[in-house]
Amino acid sequence: MPFPRSFEQHALHIKLINVTDPLAPLLQLPDVEAAVVRARAAVDGALKHWSLRKKGGPVAAEVSLRAAVASAALSDHRYATEEVRTGAVLDPVVQGSLRVAEALPGMVELWPKVPRQALARLHLLAATGVLPESELGRPVADPVVAARLEALSELVIAAEGEPIIRAAVVHGELLALRAFEGANGVVARAAARLTLVSSGFDARGVIAVEEGHMRREPEYVGAANAFATGTPDGLRSWLRHYTTAIEEGVGVFTEIADAFN
Known about the structure:
The chain has 14 helices and no strands. It has helices at 7-10, 14-17, 32-46, 51-54, 56-74, 81-85, 92-103, 115-127, 143-158, 163-177, 184-198, 209-215, 217-229, 232-259. It is globular, with a radius of gyration of 17 Å.
C-alpha cells in the first residue's frame, strides 16, 4: 500500500467551507450522501429488532465474537467462528482480536477524549504475543506519523458531523498510515467501531461492520488502497465500500438476532 497523503490534504479546501466539520464535503462526492442515507436507514431499522429488548446482551456478545473473528481473518488469520468459540484457536492474532473486542465496551468513553491513549491500549491488546514487548502500544518513530496521528486525534475529539464518514476516515487513515510495527488492521477496525459506538450511531455495538468488510474482502482491500491515494475517486471508492459494509453488517446482526427467536 503506498504511503498516502494526509486526510487534511485530501480535502484542504474543506476548512474554508466548513470550519466545524472538515469532513462535510466528503458527502458531496458522487453517490456518497445517498449511500450514507441508505446505511443509516438500514441501521435505524435493525435497532428496532425485538431481540434487543429481551436478549440484547447475548446478541451483542455474538456480534462481538463474529466481528473479532472477521477482523483477524482480514489480517490473514482465518478460522471458523465455531472453532474460535470453543477456545481451540491459540493463534496470537486471533487472541489479540478477541482481547480487543472484549475491551471495546470499556473504552467507549475514553476514545473521544484521549484517542491517542486509546490507540495505544488497542495496540497493546492486539499485538501482545505478535510483537516484542518493547513495541507494544508505541507508534513508529516517524515525525510524519506523529503529526498525522495528532491530526486524526483532533478529528476524533471534535466529533463533528456524520459518524459514518468520520468512522470511515479513521479506519482508512489508520490502515494507510501503518502507525505501528504490526496489528494495524485490527487496531484500525476497532477504532472505527469505537467511533460508531461512541457517537451513538450504534450505541450498543451490534452492527457487525467487520464481517461486512469480510464478506466483500476484495472490495475492502481495493477500496482501502484507493483511499491511500488521496484522490477524490479513491475517497469515494472507500466511502461507498464503507457504507455497503455497514449494510452487510446489518444483515449479519439480523441473522444473529433472528436466531435468538
